Amino acid sequence: MTIDQQKSDDGHHADRSAWVIWGILVVLAVAILPFAVRNSEVVRHIAAMCGFTIG
After folding, report:
1. CA distance 51 to 29
2. Contacts of 47 (CB under 8 A, 6+ apart)
3. pLDDT at 44
4. What residues contact 9, with CB distance under 8 A and at least 6 apart?
5. C-alpha–C-alpha distance, residues 16 and 31, integer Å
6. Nearest C-alpha neighbor of 36 from the set 28, 21, 53
7. Has this prediction a pTM greater than 0.85?
8. CB atoms < 10 A from the CB of 18, how many?
């Protein structure tokens, strides 16, 4: 295996790790969403962070 092939394999591994981490974060966010919506204060704070004013 040449050095160029080894560097390429390491790059693919790092990319795959980043995608897996982001995928886990997205799944957690979607799983938490129903619980967050039940608490109106949490919804107001999330909207305020996004620049929206609710009620």
Report:
1. 20
2. 53, 54
3. 85
4. none
5. 22
6. 28
7. no
8. 10
Pure H helices in 1-55: 3-38, 40-49
Cα 20 off chain centre by: 10
The amino acid at residue 54 is I
How much is the pLDDT for 39? 76
pLDDT tens for residues 1-42? 555 555 555 667 778 889 999 999 999 988 888 777 777 787
Question: What is the rounded distance in angstroms from the CA atom of residue 34 to the CA atom of residue 39?
Answer: 9
Integer distance in angstroms from the first to the last C-alpha of the chain? 63
Q: How many residues does the chain have?
A: 55
